[in-house]
Amino acid sequence: MIQRYIRENYDSILEIAKVITKGRKPDYEDLAHEIMLLLLTSNREKMNILVEKKKIKFYIIRATINQYRSTSSPYFKKYRKEFAAINKQTSSLTEHLLHQVNLDLTPSKNYNEEVLEFIDEKLNDVEWFEKNCFAIYYGDELTLDAMSDLTGISRNTLYRAIRDTRNYLQDEIQESRFRR
């Protein structure tokens, strides 16, 4: 019965996920499929009773919200955990860079998103080695000594790679439209 419900209401489940994720693709598709998997792996009797009593839609909405918002949900662990860590690292990196170039950090989500996109774009112009040293140093917050011990690369080489990348990004931010 639950399989038939999912087949017949696939678009509805997808729409619920789309509303909850505010239309973020592929988030809503992944979330909808995770909910369908949850429905199929849950207690069949319970699911069938919810279908019969016409309470399944409420259950789906509630489960979708919980899956999307909870940091311990299977959906979060499967699809968002890595990006949450990257966003956290990128956010602290952005704040550090903006502080270095003495920009006003007036809270503005759109502004910060633009800066992050700009930094990501500019990091594509940096050599692989420098980019990764920079990301590890600021993202994982390792010291130069710790990085050197872990990689076997000299502290001085790591320092130059990070310094050059930081200076490049600071110069690009200074020259860009992000100056205030």
Description:
With 180 residues, the chain is mainly α. Helices cover 77% and strands 0% of the residues. It has helices spanning 2-8, 10-20, 27-41, 44-52, 56-69, 74-100, 109-123, 128-139, 144-151, 155-175. α2 runs parallel beside α5 (56-69) and α7 packs across α10. The protein is elongated and about 70 Å long. The mean pLDDT is 80.
Give the oligomeric state. single chain
Low-confidence stretches: none
Number of domains: 2
Helix content: over 70%
Mean pLDDT: 80
Q: If you compute it from the alpha carbons, what radius of gyration comes out, rounded to the nearest whole angstrom?
A: 23 Å
How much of the sequence lies in strands comes to: under 5%
Count every helix, treating DSSP H or I runs of 4 or more residues as helices.
10
Instruction: Kindly state the number of beta strands.
Output: 0
Helix and strand run: HHHHHHHHHH
Short description:
Helix content is 77%, strand content 0%. By secondary structure, the chain is mostly helical.
Key traits:
180 residues; mainly alpha; elongated
Topology record:
Elements: H1 2-8, H2 10-20, H3 27-41, H4 44-52, H5 56-69, H6 74-100, H7 109-123, H8 128-139, H9 144-151, H10 155-175
